[in-house]
Amino acid sequence: MKLALGTVQWGMPYGVLQHDQPACEDIAEILSQADKARVSLLDTAPDYGNSERVLGRLSEAKSFRLITKVPPLKTREQARTIFEKSLVNLNVNSLYGLLLHRGQDLLGQSGEALFAWLQSLKAEGRVKKIGVSVYTGEEVDAIFSRYALDLVQLPLNAFDQRLVKGGQLARLQEQGVEIHARSVFLQGVLLSPQLPQPLQIFESHLDYWRAQVKACGCTPLEMALSFVRSQPMVDKIVCGVHSVAQFKALLEAFSKPIVKTDYEAFSLSDTRLLNPANWPLV
User: Where are the domains of the chain?
Assistant: First the structure.
């Protein structure tokens, strides 16, 4: 199953279209349903509020592989302290994956020491795969030309096709790197029938998107997922959900045939639109 669950919404308000955090019993039910659907991977991080602690308290989380991250930092010692705290919060002894939340850390003065530390965790059996979270093709090229990593998490959606067009996805696959796509709904922009006023900078693009969704006879959710599902290089599609109903809708969309359309026509290049860090405050 290519679907993986992102857990940021379970630990803090997130994104421009924020929802209330689900109760622990609702998260437990989502995990139970996900396990039955053969979803096997959960993505979390210390920066996701109390997400790690929530997962550590829930018995339903025990059957999942876990990926967490080391926040932006300066030294190997800081990384070690944060990693050990994550294991305590998650109530586990080892992880499927550990990512540097800011891939640029590998390109700084402590990069070699951080990479050596990540390798030592693999050698000790405390982490199965090591990797980075990235934002741009330039980051991918710089990091993976210097370091042999196992795993990468990157932004990919119908509007943001930069890493497909730049050839980074193909090159990562050739290197045997496991690729996890995030931001597949562009923080909900692709799914929302109406955006807050500051984000109406997207409206002209969304008018065409919505017209094509209608022409294809599908839902925005099915169309957004179809673009990422149609990329053979992607191993996991990380999606956040805040309710059982939303998870069931996600599963149903995954069960549908991939929508056939000209996805390249949706592609944008303006990073003011593609990077949420650059969006006007909502």
Answer: 3-275
Q: Is the pLDDT of residue 282 over 80?
A: no
Q: What number is the average pLDDT over the span 205-227?
A: 96
Please state whether the predicted TM-score (pTM) of the whole model is above 0.85.
Answer: yes
Q: Which CATH number fits domain 3-275: 3.40.50.150, 3.40.30.10, 3.20.20.100, 3.60.160.10?
A: 3.20.20.100
Report the distance separating Cα 246 and Cα 30, nearest Å.
9
Going 142 to 147 to 153 to 156, the CA torsion angle's sign is positive
Q: What distance in Å separates the CA atoms of residue 109 and residue 116, rounded to the nearest whole number? A: 13
Q: Is the pLDDT of residue 221 over 80?
A: yes
CA distance from start to end of the chain: 35
Q: How far is residue 11's CA from residue 83's CA, in Å, rounded to a whole number?
A: 18
What phi and psi values does residue 232 have, to the nearest 5 degrees?
Answer: -65, -20
Hey, what long-range contacts does 201-208 have (CB within 8 A, 24 or more apart)? 201/272, 201/273, 201/279, 201/280, 202/273, 205/159, 205/266, 205/268, 205/273, 208/265, 208/266
**Residue that the structure tokens 């696959």 belong to:** 173
pLDDT-derived band of residue 197, with 50, 70 and 90 as boundaries?
Answer: confident
Are 266 and 209 spatial neighbours (Cβ–Cβ below 8 Å)? Answer: yes
